[in-house]
Amino acid sequence: MRILFVASEIFPLAKTGGLADVCASLPRELAAMGHDVRLVLPAYPGARAGLEAAGPQIPVQELPGVGCIPGRLPGTGLPVVLVEAARWFDRPGGPYGDTRGRDWPDNAERFHGFARASCAIAGDRAGLGWRPDLVHCHDWQTGLVPALLSLEGSRPATVFTVHNQSFLGRFDRAQFAALGLPAAWWSPEALEFYGDFSFLKAGLVFADQLTTVSPTYARELQTPEFGCGLDGLLRHRAADFTGILNGIDTEVWNPATDTYLRQCYDSATVAAGKRANKAAVQAELGLPAVGRIPLLVMISRLVEQKGVDLVAELIERWSDRALQWALLGSGELQWERRLEALAAAWPERVAVRIGYDEGLAHRLEAGGDLFLMPSRFEPCGLNQMYSQRYGTVPVVRSTGGLADSVVDVFAAGSGAAGTGLVFDAPEAEALATALERGLPLYRNRAAWHALQRNAMAADFGWRRSAEAYLEVYRRALAAAGGGHG
Ligand code: ADP
Ligand code: GLC
């Protein structure tokens, strides 16, 4: 199958979160299974700089000032096309906002432009000499692609994946008019959304098949509590909507070969390996070098979704306990300040690093004892899976992909299959209770090792999920061929 991935983040060229990891590792698995996969990404400055084997820019005739730069995704050999348009993508800051995290005011125009260029590529009108059978789009930034392709006479099949429903790509009527979208789309059956319009909704309405990144989140999205105003639409399209748990890149996240670590290890050497990595990360962060104290780590975008407040509250409440906390993240200023204040108040117990640091993320996974993920909602979540592979026991709230990928060690019937600690209420008290249950295990060496080994044995490779995507692709091809194709 010829498959075109369209995304606003692809690791390592552009990343703010798990979207980037998935949009690199799923295509890689599909390619390994023999499919012809190519990727499209905006030409942010970092992506241009990182592109391997970059070819000369090819102008896109139907879009003045827009060009395509073909190249390869570093470390994978996968063909990537960067959509170059200096006015939209050549600026400092992140993919969606400036260096202070404020959204770019022209995001509707930027990602509409990106969508149009992606349609030109999909229709082989961009001089690349290749035409996909199917286009796989991700999150609101690409929601207009299935909509715009639906206007074309002969088109590829389309699949739209929701990685996070809370980002609606919502803009007002003036922006709708400025983009020159078909007037008929200003309707509740199409893009209109409570007096505005939504790029995400465009994807959900127009793609042949829909997916999201875990079975539990797929069910949650069909309820008013989690659906962000689009639960009715998803119930309506339930027959075309599948939840598929993300896999992880087992080469990038492999404690046996990870070059970021002081000492590599596997499940046979986990005790010694983690001891060495814990000492190294304590030294790196300026925490006292004590081996027996549990080290609780968190790596996260610092936003309400992730339950940072629960962790902050618990650190305060337990400030007199023999525990160490190491937190890495960036995001909203209020959370960054709150965490920094905790580190300032208890420097012997709490280390905080604000910023984005790939290497430290790996070292924390290797050196930590427990990994905290008390998310209010979590479409899939990757770190709880990385943690298991690194023998770091995840402590998660039972929601979305966390519920689908962590088995509570005390759950009735889980027996030897437990891989972490799971709690329900989105409250510091519930997180505290989960830890109170887990910490005695930590002090029981044999029980802890058994739990670590179970976690490390869990299979989060992509093969099974990639096969599930291929099923969805086949359904999309049938729908596109039989319907409007
Ligand atoms: P989300 O996409 O909602 O942020 P995921 O768990 O799916 O959540 O993915 C987060 C990814 O981003 C993981 O690969 C994680 O290691 C990484 N990450 C998040 N914050 C940081 C940070 N400050 N430094 C390094 N990596 C980070
Ligand atoms: C989103 C979600 C996260 C998921 C990631 C990759 O950023 O918040 O839960 O793991 O996408 O699908």
Q: Count the helices. How many?
A: 18
Sheet with the most strands, sense and barrel status = 9 strands, mixed
What's the CATH first level of the largest domain? Alpha Beta
Q: DSSP strand (E) fraction? A: 15-25%
Distinct small molecules: adenosine-5'-diphosphate, alpha-D-glucopyranose
Any low-confidence stretches, pLDDT <50, length ≥5? none
The averaged pLDDT comes out at 96
Strand order in the sheet with the most strands = 3-4-5-2-1-6-7-11-12
Q: Count the E strands.
A: 18
Structural class: alpha/beta
Radius of gyration: 23 Å
| Principal-axes shape call | globular
Give helix % range: 25-40%
CATH topology assignment of the largest domain: Rossmann fold
Cα end-to-end separation: 17 Å
CATH superfamily of the largest domain: Glycogen Phosphorylase B
Going by CATH, the architecture of the largest domain would be 3-Layer(aba) Sandwich
Q: What is the total domain count?
A: 2
Question: Short description, anyone?
Answer:
By secondary structure, this protein is an alpha/beta fold.
